[in-house]
Amino acid sequence: MAIIASLIGRRRQSFTEKLVQMPWGLVIVVTILCVIGLFMLYSAAAGNFDPWASKQLVRFAIGMVLMLGIATVPIRFWYRASYVIYALALILLVVVKFQGSIGMGAQRWLDFGFVRVQPSEIMKYALIMALARFFDQRGSDGASQWLALVIPLILLAAPVGLIAVQPDLGTAVILIMACGMIFFTIGISWWVLGGGILTLIAAAPLVWHYLHDYQKARVLVFLDSSRDPLGTGYNIIQSKIAIGSGGWTGKGFMQGTQSHLNFLPEKQTDFIFTMLGEEFGFLGAIFVLCLYGIVLLYGYRIVSRVASRYARIVAIGIIGFMFLSIFVNVGMVMGMIPAKGVPLPFLSYGGTSLVVTLCGMGLLMNLWIHRDARLGAGGVED
Amino acid sequence: MARNLSSILDTQKDQIFTRRRVLLGAAQAGLLVALGGRLFYLTVLQGKHYTTMAEENRSSLRLRLPQRGKIYDRNGEVLALNRQNFRILLVGEQAGDVNLALDSLSLLVEVSASDRERVLREVKQKRKFVPVVVRDDLNFDEVARVEINEPDLPGISIDSGQSRFYPNSLSFGHVLGYVGPLSEQERNDNAGDPLFELPDFRLGKNGIESHYEEELRGRPEIVQVEVNAVGRISRELSRNEGKTGDDLELSIDSGLQNFAMRRLGEESSSLVLMDVHSGEIQAMVSAPSFDPNGFTQGMKTETWADLRNNPKNPLTNKAIAGQYSPGSVFKMVTAMAGLNAGVINTSTTVHCNGSYTVGDSTFHCWSRKGHGWVGLDRALKESCDVYFYETIRRTGIDALAEMGRRFGIGEPLGVDLINEKPGLMPDKAWKLKTFGRPWLIGDSISCGIGQSYVQTTPLQLATMTARLVNGGKAVIPRVVRRVGGRLPEGMPHAPFDDLKFNPEHLQAVLRGMDAVVNQAGGTAYASRLNEGGWEMGGKTGSAQVRRITKQERARGIRPQQDLPWEERDNALFVAYAPLKRPQYACAVVVEHGMHGGWVAPIARDILLETLRRDQGFNIANDQPKVQGVKVLTPAAPASVMPQSPGGNASPDSDPLDSAPLDSAPGEAD
After folding, report:
1. CB 3.0–4.6 Å: which of A293, B58, B551, B600 could bond A257 by disulfide?
2. How confident is the model at residue B625 (pLDDT cuts 50, 70, 90)?
3. Tens digit of pLDDT for each residue in A304-348?
């Protein structure tokens, strides 16, 4: 065993070896989640594959292929391409600002004719790869130095600014928080972290000033949900009713009254967890939450096992995005945090979200497959 | 060296990384558990609450108005029915530009400015797919015009609802009442009953429509439907079949009712005709009347103002809500009280010299020269006041009041109509309670001839007569025979309680009532019924509506015809027929009709008509019409004025059959 391990560490793995090394348990969990999502989309369309489940199935297939592809590409490639990918993503964000199509009142989409892409989704992974690359190189002289802080903050601020003006404040906040997790884990001192948080709090009034009315309304309604029971608060109230009425075991597949009678808006995207709760109850919903927990556990196992700093940081970032998406979405539909349109990973209908999330999973698997590879400052070989 | 240093640093960093990683993982795990906890709270702990809310969300009750029961007369003639009411509906969602739709519609049918304003307002208020009524009560011509053009009128459609219609409207307004939309009060009283929230729901407002509201209403069809978030119906969850309201069969004979209505004409008057054994009312008329269709179909403001301001009170059913001093028709009660108390008997005689003095008060007989020695028969026949002054003085007020109540005076009889008034049967306790003053003998004297405090409704007078002639049974009048084919619940019916009168006393009084009509010199002899072998008995009455002062009496009493209308005496007449085997009792009151003898022909005509219509009384088919019937053509409306009904309506006795008082009852001590 030790010999094999050392062999893997030293020389290039064959594609077959990489397949063997794939964390298949994670693949299975992800597949189960996606299949549950397909069932929910089938139910959301009142027992039809169209318009959602069929398209999502295609994206699922594309996403799985991409996932496996990304997982098996040599990690060195990703390591070297990190900055390039970041730059491309940044360019796409700029383009979307001027060319993008408007959906739900914000410019988020780029239409390439055959596919519509949300550059902010791509930026998530581009940003953590760039940060990982940076911190990896600066590994020895440490992140405690000021320059080592300023550059990552610029890397972060550029996309956050572009996304915030789309406006897509939610994604911007998620980006900041995921990067915060990275900063936290690589060992930025508590003082700096505390200072950063204080700065954000101090900036809150300024941010409030620039918020759109609908965004202000969401925050206000969260603070007092009876404020506007038929407006912004309506969705949350109806969502809570739907989940709550599911009870222990739910109303049964395709039997959810709240979702099928359209009391739930956007049931196929942001409120798909609500539908799940209504139709499969506490047990069904907790089962899905547990699956997410398994995905995150896999992530932490990978974090603790990979040899390179780059890999660790990327893994922390992927886990961070995964966790934040789950928490914000599920917390929102259960009325714990302000309403924000964040898709639920694997389950929500939406091309970019599913494909990009699966790509992220591919990257995570890549880190596992190449867990012994040494990169950048930590080692010259792979 | 550098390499060594960096690896030391790396090791340090790795330690930090491991620590921080664990912290981060723990924080994330904690938040995930919080999500699970929240999920548990919502689904398991609050599940019931949210399940209820989800049910309320999705289900909605739809009610279909039940068909209101129809009302028929005793011969099956329909008196109240539900008519198809065509109306124009507009659905905002389909119409697009509502103003434009109304413009094109107004080319076909009239759409008033106020209708337009209301429609625009309602379209804005209601959900887009909820229809709004543009016009109500379309005629067939209008329906056809709109229907033909419907393809060019998007969002506009013809719909039919039900509206109440009274075909025989002019003589049944008071008895039937009418239906109308809810008042604020009625809405509040019935809050929670979804039926009352239907915009088309109409509630019985008067008469039978109100008294039998619950029976007529029926039960709505209740359909529980599933609705989606915008209120569209997706499917039916449960259905509770409704029930059509019960049909009513009245005891009233429509032909007789119309006859009575025409016979009363324009006088402010009322009439009740009832079966003395069953209590069934066959005619109940209050004139002038109103058209109940005006209330269901909308009434012009002027019409409404006329109805309200008319001094003859057309909106009041005087047969049950008019309270009058009965005057001399009350003398039967006084006689029965005296006989019952044993203070008079059939051979008792009293000397009448035209006045009667008690203490220092003088009470006059209508006959100034007096009747001489009179017994009970002649006292009733000629309506001698002095005889009854003496009788009541001997009997006392409390015994009279007790007798009055046995005849149904002083309390509502419980007829199945709303707003029946109690009348008033005074006694000592009543006066003390009401005025705080003791009863005086002078009060009794006036009450003995049905003046002073005594008040009766025409219905009570008819019932009193019925109880006299049916052998002393406590008959209760009613207007509804059958509800949905069954006897009406809660309405007493034959056999009625025995009032325990002495049959000899009854016979003595009936002899007097016979004499009033059938003996020369009786106050209604001119109006006697003598046709087809039938005769009737009766009693005249006239009651002052104002006091005659001493000065006026000294100057000489002016003839009633010379007084202003509202100062003339009320005229009353009660009668029964046939004389030998009484079946029907009738009471007629004509306000300011001056003398009972003058309204007697009305009672005679209606009794005759009743007997003719009654198959139980075999009569020849070719009966010659009496004069009273002949004048009932529209060209010559009947009147109770002595000059118009023809010679035989003119009384042959002095019209002043009342007891003129020198002073107020309270002062006559």
Report:
1. B58
2. very low
3. 989 888 999 999 999 999 999 999 999 988 988 876 678 899 999
- Rounded to an integer, what distance in angstroms lies between the CA atom of residue B338 and that of residue B404? 12
For an interface test with B, which of A137, A138, A282 has the most B Cβ atoms less than 10 Å from its Cβ?
A: A282
Q: Is B558 on the interface with A (CB under 8 A)?
A: no
Q: How far apart are CA B395 and CA B391, in angstroms?
A: 6
CB-defined contacts A:B, below 8 A: 141
β partners of residue B483: B248, B486
Neighbours of B152 (CB within 10 A): 9
The CATH superfamily label for domain B254-289+315-482+496-667 reads: DD-peptidase/beta-lactamase superfamily (3.40.710.10)
Nearest to B17 among A186, A289, A330 (CB): A186
State how far the Cα of B99 lies from the Cα of B104, in Å rounded to an integer. 9
Mutate to test the interface with B, among A185, A225, A304 (most CBs of B within 10 A): A185
The answer to whether the Cβ–Cβ distance between A244 and B35 falls below 8 Å is no
Nearest CA to B427 out of B438, B416, B411 is that of B438
d(CA A306, CA A373): 8
CB B214 within 8 A of CB B483: no
CA dihedral for A208, A214, A219, A221, sign (positive or negative): positive
Is the CATH number of domain B56-77+168-250 3.10.580.10? Answer: no
**What is the distance between the alpha carbons of residues B99 and A241, in angstroms, rounded to a whole number?**
40
| A130/B contact by beta carbon, under 8 A | no
Select from 3.40.50.300, 3.50.50.60, 2.40.128.710, 3.90.1310.10 the CATH code of B84-163: 3.90.1310.10
Chain segment B343-394, per-residue pLDDT in tens: 999 999 999 999 999 888 889 998 888 899 999 999 999 999 999 999 999 9
Question: Cα(B543)–Cα(B331) distance, rounded to whole angstroms?
Answer: 12
Tell me which H or E stretch contains B431.
helix B428-435
Do residues B604 and B527 lie in contact, with contact meaning Cβ atoms separated by under 8 Å? Answer: yes
Tell me the pTM: 0.63
Q: What is the mean pLDDT of residues B196-216?
A: 86
